[in-house]
Amino acid sequence: MSKKIYLLLFLNLLLCFPQHFFAQTYQLTGNPVNTTGWTMVAPTVVNTDFVQLTPDTNNQSGSIRLNEPINLKYCDKWRVEFDFRMDSNQTANGDGIAFWYLANPPVASVLGSGLGVSQNAVGFIVGFDTYNNTTTAVMSKVHVAYGQVANTTDNNNVEFFNVAGSSFHSPDMNTTLPFQGTTYKHVEVTAQVDPAAPANWIVKITIDGNLICSQSFAPSGTAAGMTVGYFGFSASTGGNRSRHSIKNVKVYIDKVAINQATVTDTFCPNPSTGQGTVNLTNYQSQFVTNPANYTFSYSVSGTPITNPNNFQFSANTTVSVLIKDNSGILCDNPDGKIQLNLSPFTATPATLTACNNNNAGTATFNLTQANVNEPAGSTKKYYKTLENLNNGVNEITNFANYVSAPGIVYVKVTTPLGCVGSAPITLAFFPPIVSNDATIESCFIEGAPTTASFDLTQANVTSASGVTKKYYKTEADALAETNEIVPANNYISTSSTVYVRITNLAGCYIIVKITLKVLPPIYSSVLMDKTICIDDKTTLDAGAGFDTYLWSTGENTQTIQDVTPGLYWVQLKSGRCTTMQMVRVNPAPQPVISNIDITNNTITVNVKGGKAPYQYSLDGVNWQDSNIFTGLARGEVVVYVKDAYDCTPIHVQITVPNLINAITPNGDNKNDYIDYSALAYKKNLVFTIYDRYGNKLYEADKLRNYKWDGTTGGKKVITGTYWYTITWNENDKNNTQTTYNGWVLVKNRE
């Protein structure tokens, strides 16, 4: 075959991951040996850490092979290593072990001297032979065949395959490197493409580090047309026997791992030629991480591309990519594909939608967000009119922050390949937020009747769903989103205005006004405080026009009757609000006779308290406006007084003393002294004498028995007129102060 037969893609045991084929070795290792992905033909079995191809009995043939065929077309190198052991309890040993890569591996036991290899086997065979079919002696030889081996008789198997350039037979090593024994032998088989003859493999075989074979092998016969094959091992016994075992098998046939199998790109055709132009080497890093470590070749339908740096195509094209490992360790990977598509560019119209915040009439648009179906890397320029676009003038430079009313602008797109297209961009507003100003009424707060508590969230300012609302004292705060009212459901305020900022899911907002109205208390204009006599009763009337009434007495009528003095309240409901109004029924204050002045037989009644004007009486029947009574008889007198409330009169009993105007203190026991001891029963009685200048001369109290004998300081006063005052408190509840003024003539004889 005119291509390298290399262990490519050996198996399905190579782990496959998405977008990356991970290189791996096929193995028969472990304890017990893991044979997943391999097929054994009886009597081959796993025995702990080794695979026993045959037991130590006569006429046995067994094998083990990979399940999936391997294509070595793209492999420059491959290597297999394993350990074998041939042991027996007798000296007549045979036949041996074979390692192979065959198009037709054994699928059943193949008896005979062919080391368990299938009849008419096509492929590459390495035999480790211990039985000489010519001399019947025990031997230790290595045979190599690259072609078709009949293997139908004892003299047409691998031992007898002799094709120049396609076969090898080692000397007998039974004395220097015997294959028989209980100790495992380590084998390495390596192959690489022969640079001088690329269809050939240069194969090296070592046993325990001893080089057995190193030559170039050409495929012969039907092996030259071989495309895929199966790796495996087999062994057989005949008249001689051994137990044939292998372990630590490793087959190295990894190919270059790629990150992804297909890269797709789309191009705008050159307007003048209709062709796309691409540098295929630009995609290398998408297939492998370090492109410099690999050699890439490209083809279309098997035709090599000679100028990948400037590949031109006029229709959608699939390019096959072959990736070769420069170190020659990994097999070539032919799985890469570059899908090139031609797509003439046409810009598509687009629409941008932005917020008409607070009904400003304009919005801010980011024109770069308009998707007009431009390819990556395109440049775009924006214009207010199509004429400006065509002439390339008046370009919009603030395209990322373009403030505009609804309308149309135009974009000119230039693709990386130079294709040019233009399209209109429609500038539109989001639908407006349905909103309206609102008014909230709330009842006054008792104790601060000019204020109320408002639940701003109850203001019916919008019917829109999916919105958020925030509340502010001023419109400026709402615009700046500062000084938010929190909480909004218990805002204490006088009648005023606040503002709500309504924001929808698109981030658009509108600010509307909420008028706050404090519902003031409504009082009865007819319900007034009253003053009545303390033992009287009255009626309280809250007046008509209220929805409900509730008095502190529990009554719920407009009026309540038989009300005695005291403090009352009534709750007056008008609409939503209830006003509590206090009303006091005062007991009329009684007047008090503060003092009474008596001069001779005239009294003057002085009154305080109560409500003027006062009326006066000496019998409680006949009344006068004057507070002076004259011509009174000496002795006890009752004085009555009532005020403007006309309640039960107050009264006081007073004494009009006897009038004494002269004394002659000469010791004759006649008129020797002035005596008011008859008033001694009065409280706080004081009898005081003054000279004509108002100087106090004498005070007759209880100790002096309320008498004066015309002396002062133990000496007689000179003859003359003297003045005196008698004061006391009447024995009533008010201790009415009474004053009696008089004069006396004292005649003292020298």
UniProtKB/TrEMBL annotation:
<dbReference type="GO" id="GO:0005537">
    <property type="term" value="F:D-mannose binding"/>
</dbReference>
<dbReference type="InterPro" id="IPR026341">
    <property type="entry name" value="T9SS_type_B"/>
</dbReference>
<dbReference type="InterPro" id="IPR013320">
    <property type="entry name" value="ConA-like_dom_sf"/>
</dbReference>
<feature type="signal peptide">
    <location>
        <begin position="1"/>
        <end position="23"/>
    </location>
</feature>
<dbReference type="GO" id="GO:0006888">
    <property type="term" value="P:endoplasmic reticulum to Golgi vesicle-mediated transport"/>
</dbReference>
<dbReference type="GO" id="GO:0030134">
    <property type="term" value="C:COPII-coated ER to Golgi transport vesicle"/>
</dbReference>
<keyword id="KW-0732">Signal</keyword>
<dbReference type="InterPro" id="IPR005052">
    <property type="entry name" value="Lectin_leg"/>
</dbReference>
<dbReference type="GO" id="GO:0005975">
    <property type="term" value="P:carbohydrate metabolic process"/>
</dbReference>
<dbReference type="GO" id="GO:0016020">
    <property type="term" value="C:membrane"/>
</dbReference>
<keyword id="KW-0472">Membrane</keyword>
<keyword id="KW-1133">Transmembrane helix</keyword>
<dbReference type="GO" id="GO:0004553">
    <property type="term" value="F:hydrolase activity, hydrolyzing O-glycosyl compounds"/>
</dbReference>
<feature type="domain" description="L-type lectin-like">
    <location>
        <begin position="14"/>
        <end position="254"/>
    </location>
</feature>
<dbReference type="Pfam" id="PF13585">
    <property type="entry name" value="CHU_C"/>
</dbReference>
<dbReference type="InterPro" id="IPR051136">
    <property type="entry name" value="Intracellular_Lectin-GPT"/>
</dbReference>
<dbReference type="Pfam" id="PF03388">
    <property type="entry name" value="Lectin_leg-like"/>
</dbReference>
<protein>
    <submittedName>
        <fullName>Gliding motility-associated C-terminal domain-containing protein</fullName>
    </submittedName>
</protein>
<keyword id="KW-0812">Transmembrane</keyword>
